[in-house]
Amino acid sequence: MNVQLIVVHGWFVLFGAGGVVLAMLLEASAWNAMIVLATYALADAGSYIFHYIVDHYGDAAKDGIVREFQNHHRQPGCIARRPLVEVIYPAARIIALPVLVVLLLALSGWLSGPWALFLFTLGSCWVFTQVFHRWAHLRRPGRVVASLQRSGLILARSPHERHHESPFMTNFAVINGWSNPLFDTIGMPGLVDIVLEKGLGIEKRSTLVADVAAMQLENRQSV
Ligand SMILES: [Zn+2]
Ligand SMILES: [Zn+2]
Questions:
Q1: What mean pLDDT is reported for the chain?
Q2: What is the C-alpha separation between 214 and 210, in angstroms, rounded?
Q3: Are 57 and 202 in contact (CB under 8 A)?
Q4: pLDDT tens by residue, 72-84
Q5: How many angstroms separate the Cα of 162 from the Cα of each of 2, 179, 184?
Q6: What residues contact 3, with CB distance under 8 A and at least 6 apart?
Q7: Gap from CA of 55 to ligand 1 centroid (Å)
Q8: Cα(42)–Cα(178) distance, rounded to whole angstroms?
């Protein structure tokens, strides 16, 4: 069994165990349901900012996750053909351990139930981010996933298609897409640039827009 399979299987065991632990610690209440819903929205907002940063700032030569996101723009359909294990592994590798710590702290009484619910939900959403993203690229996602996409509970295909249109500056959120209209309207990419470029002096590296535009032109000319 390879490392990816071990990590992803381990993640699913942890995810199930986390559900059991939280069910033991918490009551089924409207307040706890609100925590899950608000965290699901927050995780989506985080996915917008993270996605913008890896698309435009990361060094694809050095960082695997940056390479994965930037290559995705060159061949958007590839993610639909990749096995789920490969799609889940990069995030599970980083997030599984902190989630385990959260559950252990909650079990030992060092962390309150609501905080554990918040952190567990946040971590889980981010581990499954690329699954929602992958589903948005599937031509036939299946009846259940398609109806979740139509209901707006998970990322739908058409808003994400707009992210793959030049100049690739909108619709960065890839969990449920709830933050896309707000963040696109207020110009969140520009705000992130102010913090990273002007505030922290980090150089914007990506040639993503130029690369993909050149590739699209090449494809059109070769048809
Ligand atoms: Zn992107
Ligand atoms: Zn995509």
A1: 91
A2: 6
A3: yes
A4: 888 888 899 999 9
A5: 36, 14, 12
A6: none
A7: 5
A8: 9
